[in-house]
Amino acid sequence: MLAPAPLPLESLPLRRRATIAEIAWGRLALPEARRLREFGFEEGMHVELLHRATLFRGPVACRIGRMTVALRRNVAAAITVTVD
Amino acid sequence: MSILPLVALVGNPNAGKSALFNALTGARQKVGNYPGVTVERHSGRLSLDDGRPVELVDLPGTYSLDPSSPDEQVTRDVLFGRQVGERRPDVLVVVVDAANLDLHLRFALQLIALGLPVVVALNMVDLAERDGLTLSAEALSRELGVPVVPTVAVRKRGLDVLRAALTTAVEGSGKQAPAADAPEEQPIAQLQRRAREIARAATVSETPTRRWNHALDTIALHPMLGPIVLVALMFVMFQAVFSWSEAPIGWIEGGFAAVDEAVRGAMPEGLLRSMITDGLIAGVGAVLVFLPQILILFAFILVLEASGYMVRAAFLMDRMMAGVGLSGRAFIPLLSSFACAVPGIMATRTISDEKDRLTTILIAPLMTCSARLPVYTIIIGAFIPDRSVAPGVGLQGLVLLGLYLAGIAGAFVAALVLRQTVTKGDSSGFMMEMPRYQMPRLSDIAIGLWSRAWIFVKRAGTIIALTTIVLWALLSFPRAPEGQSQVDHSIAGRIASGIEVVVKPIGFNHDIALALLPAMAAREVAVSAIGTVYAVDDAEDAAGARTIVENLQRRWSLPTALAFLMWFVFAPQCISTIAVTRRETNGWKWPLFMVGYLFAAAYIMAGITYWLAVAAGL
After folding, report:
1. Which residues does B610 contact at the CB level (< 8 Å), separation at least 6?
2. Which of A21, B191, B361, B578 has the fewest CB within 10 Å, making it most exposed?
3. Mean local confidence (pLDDT), B255-270
4. ipTM of the complex
5. Whether the predicted model's global pTM rises above the 0.90 cut
C-alpha cells in the first residue's frame, strides 16, 4: 500500500482527520510561529478542518486537540498533513 | 496597616478565569490600573475558611510566560515579582479549562515550575462532561503534585472546596523557600508532550461529541449563511434599540416633566428658577432619556460577547479586515466601540502587532458610539417620517442603520489610507482560539449593564450637568434688551457667530455652531445644548414650551439636518476618547492626529451631504 500523499492543511477535506507531517516554520512570521506552537501545533498532532470561509479565501477553522483555532490561509498552507 | 496575602488567578484565555473571580469575590471588587501600562487590574477580597481575608487579583489571560501583548506582559511581570505597583503573589490559583486540558496544562506546568504554592481549579467540568469527557481530579492532582479542585465558576460549584484548598495553601505559603526569579525554561514542545501525557492520565473516558457546537458553527461560519446571520443580528440589534426603548423613554420624560412642573410651582420666577428648569432639568433630562437605548445596545454586545459569537464574527470579518490591512481581531474592539470608544480602544490591547493596534485605535471613534445615538435619534425623529418600508422595517431604523454603515465605511477607508501611510507595515495575521458557545448568564449581563448604566448616569450628573449650566449662563448673559433675541445677544451667541462663519458653507446654522463646542465634552451634550438654546429662547415666547423636535422642524432645513447627522458620523470624539487615546499611545502625537483627521473628514463629508441634498431639492 502506498502511504497517503501529504497535502497542505488548507486543502484537507472538511471533517477528515489528519496528522501533521511537517510545519514550514520558516515561512511563518516569528510571533505567528510562536502562537501556533502555543496552540499545540506540532508534527505528529492530529488536526481536522472544520470550516472554511470560502468567500475571497477567508480564514479556516480547524480542530487541534479539543480546541478550535482560526488560521489564515497562508498559515494553513504552511502546515503539511497526511490523512489518517 | 497589615498586608493581606495576595492570591493571583492565572490561566489561559477562555479558561473562565473572570467568571471564577466574580464567583469568589462577588460584588467586592475593585478595577484599577497597573502604573505605566494601561492594563486593568481587577482585585477583590475573599475570606478564607478561618475568616482571614486575602486579596485576590485576576491576572490577564495568557498562553505562556512569553508575552506577546501588553496585558500578557503584565501577567508575566507580576508572576516574577517585577511588576511595578504589585507584590509578587503568595499563592497562585491556576485556572484550566477541563475540556481543553492538553493546552491549558502546558501553561499550568510552567506556572507550577515557578515554585509558588499552587491550587489548580479544574474549571468548566460541566461543559467538559457535556462534551463527552470525564476527568479524574485525583489523578490530575497526583500527576501535577498540587491540589486540584473541580469547579463550575458560573454555577458557583466547587467554590467551598477551592476556598479550603486556598486556606491550606496560604498557611503554607510562608514556609517555602522563595522561588527562583526565572526558572530555566523548558522547550515548549517538551512541556506540551508532558501536558498531553498528564491529560491522558487524568482522562477517565472520552467520546468525541461536541455535536451541537459544531452544528451551530456550521451555520454561523457558513460562507453564505454566516454573513447573512451576522448582518441580520446587527439589524435586529439596531431595530431593537429604537422599538424596545419607546416605553421606558416615555417614563423618563414623564418623570422629568413632573420634576420641572414641581420646581416651577415651588419657586418664584427668576434667574435661579430659569437656571434649574431651563439649564439643569432641560439639559440632564435631554440626555438621561437615552439611557434605555444605550442599555439595549450594551445588552446586545454583552450577550454576543458572553455567548462566544463575537469570535465567530471576527472569523467572518477577517477577510474583509485583511483587505484594509487589519485582522479579524480588530473586529472585537471595533464592535465594542459601537457602545463606547473608550472600552473599545482599551480592548485593542489584545492586538499584539503595534501598527495593527494603532490603526484600530485611530479608526475606533468612527464606530458610532452610543453617545451619538441621542443626536441621531432626535434628528431622525424630527426629520425622517415614521413609516414602514417593509413589514417590520421602519424607515427611521433604516436611516439609523445607514448612519452606522457610513461610519464603518469611513473607518475602512481611513484604515486603508493609514496602513499605506502613517502606520505602514506588514499585516500581523489572524490566529485565534474559538471558544465553545455558552449560554450567557443573566447575572453577568446584569452586572455589566448596571456598571454601564451607572457610568452614564454619573456622566449625566457631572460633566453634562456642568456643561449645560455653563452653557445656560453663557446663553443668559448679558440680558438682551426688550425685543431682541436673547440667544443672539448672549456671550455664547456671539462665540457661535464666529464659528458659524466656518460652518456655514456646510449648511450649519447658528444653533448648531452653538452646540458644537460643548459637544466636545460629551457628544450627547449636543442635544441638551440645543435643548437649552431653545428653552432660553422660548422663555420670552408667549407660547412657551415647544418640544425640541418642534423647534428643530421649525428652524432647520432637511439638508441641514442630514449634514448635521453626517458631521456626527465623523465628528471629533469626546474628551474621554482623546484622553484614553493619549494614555494608550503614550503621548499627544496620535490623539492630535486623530482629532485633526476626524475634523477634516467630518467637515468634508457634512459639506458633501449638504450640497448633494440641496442639489436634489430636499
Report:
1. B506, B507, B559, B560, B562, B563
2. A21
3. 86
4. 0.92
5. no
